[in-house]
Design goal:
single chain, alpha/beta, Lambda Exonuclease, Chain A, 6-stranded mixed sheet, two-stranded antiparallel sheet, 9 helices, 42% helix
C-alpha cells in the first residue's frame, strides 16, 4: 500500500520535469492536484505559490501536529479486535505516538517550552479530542474498509487528482461512506464550503475509479463534538469536476504570467508567510527560473499545509 511518506519520497527523488511528465496509467498527465492544494489556491494564490512553487518551509504548529497524532491513533485503533477498541486504549496511545513523531521529526519539540508544562497540556488536548471521538462513534460496531486510503484518478483533461482519505466505510450492499476527521471545531453555518469541497473531490475520485457515487460524506469535528453529513449525487460531482478544472486553468495562467496575487482574509491570521506577503508589507522571493508546472499534490512540509 502506498503511504504518504512513500509518495513524498518518490516525488523528492524525481526532478521537477520528471514529476510534471510522469505517465499515469499510460496517460501523460498535465499536472496533479490534491484537495488541500486546490483549497490553498482558492484561499490565496500567493499561498499556493509559496507552498508548491517556492516550497517554502513552514514551522510545525501544535494544532497541525495534534491532527497528525490523533489521526494516527484513530488509524491504529481499527487494527485491534473490536472489543479492545476502548477510550482507555486510545488515551494510553497518545504518549507513545507522540514519541514516535518526535523520533521521526525531532524539530517538533521546538513547538513547546523547556519546562514540560506546555507539552503536557498539549497531550491532554489530544486525549480530549479522542474522548470526543468515542462520544460520537462506537468503534466496536465499525469495520472500515480502508483507512488513510490513497486514491487517484486522471480526468479527461489529463489532470491527475489524488489524495488520502481518512476512512472509507463500505456497506454489504456496496454503499460507500467517506469520513474525514477534523481535530478543530466546526465552522459557522454557511462557512463549511471548503471542507465539503475537499470531500466532494474524494467522492469524485472514487466515482471515477469505482463507478459508485459515495452515498454519504461525513465530517467528524473532534473540537466540539459535531458530525456533519451530506449525500452527494452525480450532479454534485460533475460540478466539482468543473470547479477543479477551472482552478487548474487558473493555476496554469498564474504560472504562465507569474501573477500570484495575495487574497487577504481570515486565514491570514494563521499563515506562516506574512513577512513575505505584500498585504503585510513583505516582498515575495523571486520566482524560480524555467520552472515547469509544479506538482501540487506534495506539500512543502508535513505540517501546516494539511492541518487537520
Amino acid at each position: 500500500m502506498t503511504t504518504t511518506d512513500d509518495l513524498q519520497a518518490q516525488e523528492a527523488a524525481a526532478s521537477p520535469a520528471e514529476r510534471h511528465s510522469t505517465p499515469v496509467d499510460g496517460v501523460e498527465v498535465v499536472g496533479s492536484l490534491s484537495p488541500s492544494r486546490a483549497g490553498d489556491f482558492v484561499t490565496c494564490p500567493l499561498l499556493y505559490r509559496f507552498r508548491t512553487v517556492d516550497r517554502l518551509p513552514e514551522p510545525p504548529t501544535p494544532a497541525a501536529v495534534r491532527g497528525t497524532l490523533v489521526h494516527k491513533v484513530l488509524e491504529d485503533l481499527f487494527d485491534l479486535p473490536a472489543a479492545e477498541r476502548t477510550p482507555e486504549w486510545a488515551a494510553a496511545r497518545v504518549e507513545p505516538t507522540w514519541q514516535q513523531l518526535l523520533e521521526a521529526e525531532p524539530e517538533l519539540a521546538t513547538m513547546f517550552g523547556d519546562d514540560g508544562a506546555e507539552v503536557a497540556a498539549w497531550l491532554l488536548s489530544c486525549r480530549r479530542a479522542l474522548e470526543v471521538y468515542f462520544r460520537l462513534e462506537d468503534p466496536t460496531r465499525l469495520e472500515p474498509a480502508e483507512r488513510e486510503a490513497y486514491v487517484e484518478t486522471v480526468l479527461d483533461s489529463r489532470l491527475l487528482l489524488r489524495g488520502f482519505v481518512d476512512r472509507l466505510d463500505v456497506a454489504p450492499d456496496g454503499r460507500i461512506r467517506v469520513v474525514d476527521y477534523k481535530t478543530g471545531r466546526s465552522v459557522r453555518v454557511g462557512f463549511e464550503a471548503s471542507a465539503w469541497f475537499q470531500l466532494r473531490i474524494y467522492a469524485l475520485v472514487l466515482w471515477r475509479t469505482r463507478g459508485v457515487v459515495p452515498s454519504m460524506l461525513q465530517l467528524v469535528y473532534l473540537g466540539n463534538g459535531e458530525v456533519l453529513r451530506y449525500e452527494p449525487d452525480e450532479a454534485d460531482l460533475l460540478a466539482t469536476e468543473r470547479k477543479v478544472e477551472a482552478i487548474w486553468r487558473a493555476i496554469q495562467q498564474a504560472h504562465e504570467t507569474g501573477d500570484w496575487r495575495p487574497r487577504r482574509g481570515p486565514p491570514c491570521a494563521f499563515c506562516a508567510h506574512q513577512s513575505l506577503c505584500p498585504e503585510f508589507g513583505g516582498t515575495p522571493p523571486p520566482l524560480p527560473e524555467a520552472l515547469p508546472l509544479p506538482d501540487p499534490a506534495v506539500p512543502a512540509t508535513a505540517h501546516g499545509s494539511d492541518a487537520r
